[in-house]
Amino acid sequence: xxxxxxxxxxxxxxxxxxxxxxxxxxxxxxxxxxxxxxxxxxxxxxxxxxxxxxxxxxxxxxxxxxxxxxxxxxxxxxxxxxxxxxxxxxxxxxxxxxxxxxxxxxxxxxxxxxxxxxxxxxxxxxxxxxxxxxxxxxxxxxxxxxxxxxxx
Length: 152
Fold this sequence. Notes:
By secondary structure, the chain is α+β, with helices and mostly antiparallel strands. It has 4 helices and 4 strands; from the N terminus they run ααββββαα.
């Protein structure tokens, strides 16, 4: 039998390693929370609120506090409460968010960014926070629900 050359072994090992990495990178997660919104499954964002609000906890048309539906995510429920004044979002807060274990830290990092993005955008069309994909998707759905309640 012939002995294999060290170069041949190195080439085979390198090829096997690259093949393994390609296979690992081609794996897809079991569910993609952004797929529904990317495919147009979510309701269109509401950019401005109609003056027919008033179903919230505040007084006056187009003003008040509106709580969106709780949205279950892989790591726990997310629920958003909006404060609307003059047809504009003046405040946003997550009244429910995933907690426990690593979720507590992810939530503590992501929720303030999501709250600020909601106020800045004035709509549910906000970017997801890196590292908090599921929480971001749930936040956006609950935000849209609160906007729907505020805008009629």
